[in-house]
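Format notes (please read before filing issues)

Several people have asked whether sequences and structure tokens are stored in separate files. They are not. Every record keeps both together, in the order shown below: the sequence lines, then the token lines. Line labels are part of the format and must not be stripped during preprocessing.
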Amino acid sequence: MTNAVESHAAGEAGQRLALRRPAEDGLTVVLAGRWCLDETLPSQEAIERELSAALRRLTFDTAALGDWDSGLLTFLSGVLKACAARGIAVDQDGLPEGLRRLLAMAAAVPEQKVPPRAAAAQSLPARVGAATLDLIRGAPAMLRFLGEIILSFLRLFAGRARFRASDMWLEIEQVGPRALPIVSVISFLVGLILAYLGADQLKLVGAQVFIADLVAIGMVREVGALMTGIIIAGRTGAAFAAQLGTMQVNEEIDAFRTLGISPVDFLVLPRMLALMLMVPLLTLYSGFVGMFAGLVVSVTIFDISLFEYYNETLRALELKHFWVGLSKGTVYGAMVAFAGCLRGMQCGRSAEAVGEAATSAVVTGILLITIAASVMTIVYYQLDI
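Then the structure lines:
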């Protein structure tokens, strides 16, 4: 004899949940009506109150069940977990076949355990120490990647490197002509700043005409290459890391290795060549844009004639200044490509890792550019170049 224990009505659709006791150690859950998320659905607390120690078996009756969606699936998942925690056997034969399959799939997927994030509040010495340890641990990987690049260049000179010329020309277009607008704006503003700073000091001795010397030598020899390198690190280095990182996530780099194709030859070498060819040209272009900015400021603000500025620029510039700027641009381009490709090849297997690789590529690229600029400036000074 069936004993009706409790029933619950929810919403305007009428009764959706009822509980029956067909036996002392059994409980039947009657599901009726529409079970969708846009309705006010019953909670599982009514069932949990009936899950006593004497209960041994739970069954379902869905003869009057109407439309259902994930709302019902969530409800039943909670009921199954509560029964499993109390050691109560559940008979799912009364449920629709599709619902049983979804419940089985939900039970088969293990719960994802996300590792706790490290505490954000760290002292400055702790952060500096952690960064230093990361750099020391990453040094062997950087040296190993540098060795692979050197071997790739040797294969290139021997005519055995495998990559598509069209890929290199595409990279040249991306890192060269398409970078002209941002390089133009930054170089013009930097040249303008140099002209104003120089004029502020030179007017003290009445030598404002030497603004041309300051802007020309500064832009061609140092500032043009440095600003271009930083721009390319933020624009292209991050793009390289994101591209290679995405390929790492999609296991495309593993596929290259499986096919016997060196990823360094096919992916890294064209990007290295593109930056080493285009950054010196962008550096030269940056120098001329900066000199033009100095000309504009000198002629319009400080009453220096166009002829005077032109002659002073020609007198100040020597061929060695151009060679210094071009050599620094080449090294900066190689540093940016190295940092971007290194972080991309080291990328993890998640979308979050791609973003971290792009950020790390920019930081590493700017750090390498700063170190290279300092070393090259000291060397050129000692060689009187």
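For reference, the curators noted about this record: The first helix runs from residue 45 to 50. The CA atoms of residues 221 and 321 lie 5 Å apart.
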